[in-house]
Design goal:
The complex is a heterodimer of chains A (about 240) and B (about 350). By secondary structure, chain A is mainly α. Chain A is built from 10 helices and no strands. The longest helix of chain B has 16 residues. The radius of gyration of chain B is 23 Å and the shape is elongated. The chains are: A mainly alpha (about 240), B alpha/beta (about 350).
Chain lengths: ~240, ~350
């Protein structure tokens, strides 16, 4: 019970002090809006293209919301040494890092539904299969957050965290099937797409929203789960090696 | 400040009680502890024990291995070899094992700048599993005790250095731990705050908290601690009670003499003329005289004036733990003083 008090309070503090802040909320709204507008104009098909764009917009909202915030806040706390307070608390490191990432996962999940909310005004979303969509969003939020954690462990400065995050994030926008199907990419880039975890999350979203998934959903979920486990494991290993000297 | 408020009659934490002070059980047991950073051996085979309820001082110059030792004891660093037991629990392989018994006040005030004083204390209480009503009431008590009630709702970032230090100590004892690590608690703060903190440490000790104190201020350790370990270049060079450490210097008489101009080769001339006395040049026109017998100032002054040096001042010096420290570690008092100033200015 005592451990869960600590878990909840770490997550709650992060949400209040880092995530639910006007700049982040506006980022969560403006960024998806800007991408929506850009692709609407680009497609030239008007509101018809909204369902086709929605999976990519949801994925991009989660990806940018989680990776940048977590990597920067953890790096900042590490630098100011307030992160030591968490390491000194009598809770297992695994639970501590789940609490630390929990706030970002929740923020990313909520962020994903901002484009859905706006899309409601322009198109009929009654065909969406929510049962795979919701766990897919949570899965993408988790894998993106753990990627952010992995980056935070690898760097020591906040600006490095941003730079390193972009190294993963921007290629993902174009390679993971968010707005262009993986099959339309040059043949030599397609293997890279299947190495990136977001490809599998986006595939589920395409399936849930438009029925256009390329791979079986069970396989997509398994790959995302595997990526989460691997990234979290190596992040913890990095923390033990680099932060507990 | 009330001791009752600071210490809530320790939660037992499953530790065995003791009846007679002389039979106090061991609380910290450190055996052959070693830590290396690449080619540098930060802690080199350190061994010591701290009894329950003891106020134990850990002294050494900068870079001696004090903070690294604390980090290993609290779970912020892995030892390369050696053994650590806290409260009977083996923490060598599992540093989390005894963290519920421990409060830590690091050398930097590292609370959350975006939270208020009250929120910081409540959050730290939550990290130790305290329930909401319990941590809120404890936080209010501590804010009162530490004279921070009026600043309770202000952000930590806006606190003065002394206030930050006090709140950091309050955060270290929010869960009323039986063992408290204090790393340089009074460095870089004003005299009144330092005095307040020293009083608090004494109160915590009287109430039965085991305290592991590192400090640059040797007079602070002399005043507060029961036993002291000296660490130099990662090695423990001496562990003893303050009384035992002071014994050799207490039996000596020391006088500092200030002269006009350079003391030059006065020491060798004086040593030849007064074979029973030991003379040491302290630079800047100061000479230290030591003797097992009381020192007569008249003959010394006459001798120096006969040799063309005016004596500005001659005063008896009460030998202190700093003298012991300098003698044991071989460090220059002047270098230590500079280090103190640098640390105070930089923190």
């Amino acid at each position: 019970m005592r451990r869960w008090i600590a878990f909840w309070n770490i997550m709650h503090k992060d949400l209040l002090t880092h995530y639910i802040k006007p700049p982040n909320i506006s980022w969560g709204i403006l960024f998806p809006l800007a991408w929506t507008a850009m692709f609407l104009f680009k497609s030239g098909r008007g509101m018809e293209s909204v369902p086709a764009l929605l999976p990519g917009l949801m994925a991009i909202s989660v990806l940018f919301g989680t990776t940048s915030l977590l990597a920067v806040t953890v790096t900042f706390e590490k630098r100011s040494r307030s992160f030591e307070r968490l390491l000194l608390a009598p809770i297992p490191l695994e639970l501590l890092m789940l609490a630390k990432t929990g706030g970002a996962i929740l923020f990313g999940t909520v962020n994903a539904f901002v484009p859905v909310f706006f899309a409601l005004f322009f198109t009929d979303l009654s065909g969406i299969r929510w049962a795979p969509l919701l766990p897919a969003v949570i899965g993408i939020a988790m894998v993106s957050t753990f990627l952010g954690l992995f980056v935070a462990v690898a760097v020591s400065e906040a600006f490095e965290a941003q730079t390193f995050s972009n190294f993963f994030r921007f290629p993902m926008i174009f390679l993971c099937g968010l707005f262009f199907p993986v099959a339309t990419l040059p043949i030599f880039l397609q293997p890279v797409s299947y190495v990136l975890p977001l490809t599998y999350g986006v595939d589920i979203l395409h399936g849930a929203i438009n029925g256009l998934n390329v791979m079986p959903l069970g396989f997509d979920f398994s790959v995302i789960g595997l990526y989460c486990a691997v990234l979290f494991y190596f992040s913890l290993k990095g923390i033990k090696r680099k932060w507990i000297l | 400040m009330s001791m009752d408020v600071v210490v809530q009659g320790h939660r037992n934490f499953g530790l065995p009680d003791w009846a007679v002070p002389g039979e106090r059980p061991l609380f910290i047991e450190v055996e052959s502890l070693t830590k290396r950073f690449d080619e540098v051996t930060a802690v080199d085979g350190a061994s010591f024990q701290v009894r329950r309820g003891e106020l134990f001082g850990f002294l050494g110059p900068n870079g001696a291995g004090k903070t690294t030792t604390i980090n290993m004891l609290t779970g912020l660093a892995w030892p390369d070899s050696g053994q650590i037991r806290i409260g009977g629990l083996d923490c060598t392989k599992n540093p989390k094992a005894a963290q519920h018994l421990v409060g830590v006040v690091p050398d930097e005030s590292n609370l959350y700048p975006e939270l208020s004083g009250f929120e910081n204390l409540c959050f730290c209480g939550a990290l130790y599993g305290m329930r909401k009503d319990e941590r809120r009431s404890r936080a209010r008590q501590l804010l009162d005790t530490f004279g921070l009630r009026d600043a309770a709702e202000r952000k930590f970032a806006g606190y003065s250095r002394g206030m930050k230090r006090r709140l950091t100590i309050a955060a270290g004892i929010i869960h009323d731990p039986p063992l408290l690590f204090l790393d340089e608690p009074t460095t870089g703060i004003d005299v009144a705050s330092a005095r307040h903190i020293r009083q608090l440490i004494a109160d915590l000790h009287r109430a039965g908290t085991t305290i592991f104190l590192t400090t640059h201020y040797i007079e602070e350790a002399e005043r507060l601690c029961e036993r002291i370990a000296f660490i130099v270049k990662g090695r423990i060079v001496r562990v003893d009670s303050v009384a035992n450490l002071l014994q050799p210097v207490r039996d000596r008489h020391v006088m500092d003499i200030s002269v006009t101009g350079s003391e030059g080769d006065s020491c060798s001339r004086l040593a030849a003329a007064f074979p029973g006395l030991h003379f040491q040049s302290l630079s800047e026109g100061r000479i230290r005289v030591e003797s097992p017998e009381p020192i007569g100032v008249g003959p010394l002054v006459c001798f120096m004036e006969e040799h063309g040096q005016d004596v500005k001042e001659a005063r008896l010096v009460q030998p202190s733990l700093e003298d012991v420290f300098v003698r044991i570690t071989g460090l220059e008092a002047l270098a230590m003083a500079r280090e103190k100033e640098r640390k105070a200015g930089g923190s």
